[in-house]
Structures are given as C-alpha cells and as structure tokens.
C-alpha cells in the first residue's frame, strides 16, 4: 500500500532509510523543523538547517522516488531564548515561498513555560499573517494534557476559524478527543517506547474513526522506527479493516491536509 509519513525527521536518518521507506510503499515524507539534540548558538545555524531541509533533503529523498516536504520554526525546546527565537522568526519568511514548504511547524510546548507560550503565539501570528498551515508538537506524557489544553486555548484566541488548517500531533488516549472535538486534525505518533504503539493507534482509529486522523513515525535521532506507519497498516489489516479505510488514514488524509497549502504539488501514482 502506498502511504505518506506526515511527520518524520529525515535529517537524522541515513540514506538507507529512504531506500527502505520506498521499498515499503512510502511515496512522500513531511519533515517538521525540530530540536537537533543540542541548542543552536545563533540564527545562522537555523538558516543552514532550513537550507538543508529545503534544498538537500528533497534531493536525497528523490534518489528513491520519495517526495519530501518540510515545515519551518524554532522548536519549543529552544524557545526559552526569546531573543534567538525572534531572530529565527524574522528569518523564516525568506524560506516560506520555496517549493515543498508546507507551513509553520512543529511549534508547540515542551514544559508549558511562559516563554514557550509566547513564542508559540508569535509563530501562530506569523502563520496567520502568511496564510500558512500549522503543525503542532504537544508535550511529553507528564505535561501532555495540560499542554494540549493550553495550546487549544491559545489557538482559539489567536487562530480561530482556521481549525482545518492545523494539525495537532502526538495525541494519545487522553488528548485525542480534545483535539478532534475542537475541529483540528490529529496526528498519532508511533514510538517503540513512548507515545503510541500501532495497537493503541488502531484502537483510537476504531473509536474515533478516520476523519481528520493521521499516523506518523516521527523518526529521529532517538529511539524510533522510520517504518512505523507500515506497522500500523499491518495491525489494521490484522483487525480486518478494509484497504480503503486504512488508505484514508495513511494516504488520503495527509494529501487532503497538505493540499490546502498553495505550494503543495504532488501527482499521485497510478
């Protein structure tokens, strides 16, 4: 089955991973800007990173027939530095009109601090000003419910009426209903030790249905599986779901959401 991974950090994966993904049916990947594992020292580091995301990664993916799209932001883990964050925000518009850029992300909260919330809102303001899609990171388990509620409250006040243009990622059993009931898209992330397993994601898909639901690997430099989406496909097949129902989540929904971006250009394969 062809599929799209709507959240994966390929800058931290090997070229062999692109080949493996292509062999397993992946036809496209969406890569949000994220924390590199260490705090960058200045805005030029982010400029080089954005050049890598918009220039080199699409080329590397293309060697194996995989389309690569990206998102731009300064990650919540680095948002405590307000001065650096605002320098990066001022630089982002230089890249927004490049082919393959889907919007602003992954923005959000990490420890739910005031500075993180300030920079989150300034990202949202930038996205609204330029009419961009938004991809959101919700905090890890101990802070997830509070952080998700904070994010939804901030979105209601600063991006009201744009619910269909926002993807809230890393939902789990205790947050997915909040996101879907508010009208946003929801992403389920499959990790080997944290976030969701393929079985838990299938449970949520069965409970809430496929509308505005996606599944991703968020594969990065930590413990993660770039082939997690095929694991979900296999679990859904094991439970007897139709190919059309599975395809809705792993292929049709990403295309519908990304298709709202004026720069999105993709010719589905036969």
From TrEMBL:
Keyword field: Hydrolase, Metal-binding
Homology family: Belongs to the metallo-dependent hydrolases superfamily.
Record bears the keyword Hydrolase: yes
Annotated source species: Pirellulimonas nuda
Name the UniProt record assigns to this protein: TatD related DNase
Signal peptide residues on this chain, from the entry's feature table: none
Pfam families: TatD_DNase (PF01026)
Transmembrane segments: none
InterPro entries per the UniProt record, alphabetical: Metal_Hydrolase, TatD-like, UCP005295
GO MF, one example: metal ion binding
Keyword Hydrolase part of the UniProt annotation: yes
């Amino acid at each position: 089955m062809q599929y799209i991974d709507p959240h994966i950090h390929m800058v931290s994966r090997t070229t062999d991973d692109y080949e493996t993904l292509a062999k397993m049916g992946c036809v496209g990947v969406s890569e949000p800007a994220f924390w590199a594992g260490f705090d960058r020292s200045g805005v030029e580091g982010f400029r080089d990173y954005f050049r890598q995301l918009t220039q080199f990664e699409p080329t590397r993916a293309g060697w194996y027939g995989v389309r690569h799209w990206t998102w731009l932001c300064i990650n919540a883990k680095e948002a405590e530095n307000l001065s650096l964050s605002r320098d990066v925000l001022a630089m982002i518009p230089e890249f927004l009109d490049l082919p393959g850029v889907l919007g602003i992300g992954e923005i959000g909260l990490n420890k739910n601090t005031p500075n993180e919330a300030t920079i989150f809102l300034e990202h949202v303001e930038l996205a609204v000003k330029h009419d961009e899609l938004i991809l959101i990171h919700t905090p890890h388990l101990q802070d997830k419910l509070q952080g998700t509620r904070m994010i939804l409250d901030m979105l209601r006040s600063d991006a009201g009426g744009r619910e269909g243009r926002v993807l809230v990622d890393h939902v789990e059993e205790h947050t997915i209903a909040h996101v879907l009931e508010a009208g946003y898209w929801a992403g389920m992330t499959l990790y080997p030790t944290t976030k969701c397993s393929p079985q838990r994601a299938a449970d949520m898909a069965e409970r809430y249905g496929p509308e505005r639901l996606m599944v991703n690997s968020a594969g990065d430099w930590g413990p993660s599986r770039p082939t997690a989406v095929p694991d979900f496909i296999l679990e859904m097949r094991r439970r007897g779901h139709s190919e059309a129902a599975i395809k809705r989540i792993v292929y049709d929904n990403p295309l519908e959401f990304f298709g709202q971006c004026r720069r999105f250009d993709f010719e589905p394969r036969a």
